Amino acid sequence: MSEADYKELKKGGMMRQAESGLFSVRLHVVGGRLATTQLRAIREAADRFGRGEIHLTTRQGVEIPHVPQGTLAALKEFLAPSGVGVGVCGPTVRTVTACQGCRVCPSGVIDSPELAKAVDRELYGKPVPHKFKVGISGCVNNCMKAEENDAGIKGWIEPRWEAPACTFCGVCQAVCPTKAIATSGDGRALIIDPTPCIGCGDCITSCPTGSMREKIRGYRVFAGGKFGRRPSLGRRTLGVLRAKEEAMAAILAVLDFFREHGKSRERFGDTLQRTGFPALETFVKERTGLP
Amino acid sequence: MTTPLLDITGDVCPMTFVKVKMGLQRVPPLGTLAVRLKEEALKNVISSLKTEGHRVTNVSREEGIFLLEVTKGG
């Protein structure tokens, strides 16, 4: 088998092992969720084609290691009826990770698994200049580490201050973890600085009079994060988005920017180092029409 | 009737929450309870009070200690 053939196999989720003739087969998992019927099929497949072992990857994926090259096709065929697809590797859009989201987690702001499904449907396995990871955290607690991904999404609560009932008791300012709330010079208004605000909504939950309210309960997009040899954190782009569709449009635009400006074997964060972050911001704003 | 005072400045979550809940059991509906607490306890105490249908009707502070007037739900 030629190196080119191995490369093709890898793109299709079949990773050559160090041990000759064996492959670790990556499966298609979305947002870390599998149905029990899928799990049963995976178990059965690992018993039949591997060595009865399953590897859980760092990004919510599942791999079946120790599969002999000659049975790769049969393994794929065996899994298909249970709705278990084979994964991807190489310069493609990788596994979309997600937390449990607002349907399960009391802290959840957005339905992360739903968004993960939508992103996966649209983008999974699509070719890009270099591997591209998308991770979705339901809230500011950021269990899915949005900033470690090439494109990350975080559930976000943007607060709004309303004057009438406010007694200026100081609770919101005391609880704000980034001290983003200031009193105006004349002492008659509160000013929320969106730059340090991390969208936690603590000011809203602890306001005794309901003067701090939710302006937007939505999505925040981060771009250019990665881990690996030279880690860097993704940075915010666009304002707080109101709908799943807007978040989707933002991710598509971010990816388009990468396709237009990224070089082969260059991670997105490095592309942004080269072009400057403002170039992405301008592009994404123009492309999506979002604020 | 004087407002009973509950001091939870020496407690941490979840005891802050438990003590406020117990304190409110001794207060009649629409009665008030004063709670002295540290800044760190503000968020959890106030948000749980709101969730349970009580209201914080006054807030004052001195030297990093907050004093809440809590009106028990009806």
Structure, described:
The complex is a heterodimer of chains A (291) and B (74). Chain A is built from nine helices and eleven strands. Chain A has 291 residues and is an alpha+beta fold. Chain A has two domains: 3-82, Alpha-Beta Plaits; 91-291, 2-Layer Sandwich (Sulfite Reductase Hemoprotein, domain 1). In chain A, helix 4 (112-123) runs parallel beside helix 7 (244-261). The longest helix of chain A is centred in the last third of the chain and has 18 residues, at 244-261. Chain A starts with a helix and ends with a helix. Chain B has a single domain (5-71), classed as Translation Initiation Factor IF3 (2-Layer Sandwich), CATH 3.30.110. Helices cover 32% and strands 34% of the residues of chain B. Chain B has 74 residues and is an alpha+beta fold. In chain B, helix 1 (15-25) packs across helix 2. Chain B is globular. Chain B starts with a strand and ends with a strand. The A-B interface holds A 167, 169-171, 174-175, 202, 205-208 and B 39, 42-43, 46-47, 50, 55-61, 66, 68.
CATH H-level homologous superfamily name of chain B: TusA-like domain
- The CATH class of the largest domain in chain A is Alpha Beta
Number of helices of chain B: 2
Largest β-sheet summary of chain B: 4 strands, mixed
Question: Class by helix and strand content of chain B?
Answer: alpha+beta
- β-strand number of chain B: 4
CATH-assigned fold name of the largest domain in chain A: Sulfite Reductase Hemoprotein, domain 1
Distance between the termini of chain B: 18 Å
Q: How many structural units, i.e. domains of chain A?
A: 2
Main sheet of chain A, how many strands, which sense, barrel? 5 strands, mixed
Structural class of chain A: alpha+beta
Compute the CA-based radius of gyration of chain B.
11 Å
Mean of the pLDDT scores of chain B?
93
Oligomer: heterodimer
Mean pLDDT of chain A: 96
Q: Strand share of the residues of chain A? A: 15-25%
Catalogue the unreliable spans of chain A.
none
Kindly provide the radius of gyration of chain A, computed on alpha-carbon positions and rounded to a whole number of angstroms: 22 Å
The shape of chain A, in one word, is elongated
